[in-house]
Amino acid sequence: xxxxxxxxxxxxxxxxxxxxxxxxxxxxxxxxxxxxxxxxxxxxxxxxxxxxxxxxxxxxxxxxxxxxxxxxxxxxxxxxxxxxxxxxxxxxxxxxxxxxxxxxxxxxxxxxxxxxxxxxxxxxxxxxxxxxxxxxxxxxxxxxxxxxxxxxxxxxxxxxxxxxxxxxxxxxxxxxxxxxxxxxxxxxxxxxxxxxxxxxxxxxxxxxxxxxxxxxxxxxxxxxxxxxxxxxxxxxxxxxxxxxxxxxxxxxxxxxxxxxxxxxxxxxxxxxxxxxxxxxxxxxxxxxxxxxxxxxxxxxxxxxxxxxxxxxxxxxxxxxxx
Length: 322
Ligand code: DGY
Hints:
The mean pLDDT is 98. It is globular, with a radius of gyration of 21 Å. It is built from 13 helices and 12 strands. The strands form 2 sheets. Strands 8-7-6-9-10-11-12 form a 7-stranded parallel β-sheet. It is of the alpha/beta class. Helix 1 runs parallel beside helix 13 and helix 5 packs across helix 7. (2R)-2,3-dihydroxypropanoic acid binds next to loops.
């Protein structure tokens, strides 16, 4: 029997591409360019399975033409780049890769928090530019992290993993805002307090770390008004999705000293970054590296494979998105 055709929109680690090719007829993206809307439509017409990722804009317009594809197996946990209603209307199943990237993404949130607090980006730039004149008591003094208060927006898997690091590793007090009640055992382990609104959270924290999904409700959740409610000494960390933050408002707030600093891994129009942010010293900018360890990328690929194998065996894929 012919194997189903899987079209893979971006390069995967080589061992994973080989494993995919054992089970499926595979078409790879040799030069790893991001697919255009036209290429996505063509792929949906030809492939039984589309192995997509965050750079594929699978909008209602792209999906509404229909085609052959029965499953979109996303390499990544976030599926905000896929119009789920349009996929449903076309009878296309969508799967993702939860769990396996939780710890690495939480590590990166802490890395950004520490870098922003300790002005690590500024220090590295100064040293590489040959401008470091040596140790002195007043050089690049920064914010102590130990014992400070961290606000978490979105206490899902990654939010909790970040809070754990902050509380147990850095002696931080944790406050959180989440749509549903966070289980008592989780709050207890973190000695954390759940607050009822973002407005209540903002003025009480030294660091605010975003871990909510991108959806219409979270679009520009952090805007000029919410930044104005934060402490002038506070830092904003975003490893969730760029659309949660109004980048223009953030650039202005950082420039005017409304908040002290920020650490970002995600952007509103990736790979573009707001020019106002690029011009500032008090923001650390990383290129969407949250899940980017070898072990995690391998685990994500294996998760895509498991989902595809289950789907084509007529079983419910383990990570079916509803
Ligand atoms: C994820 O898994 O959502 C990462 O951000 C990459 O898309």
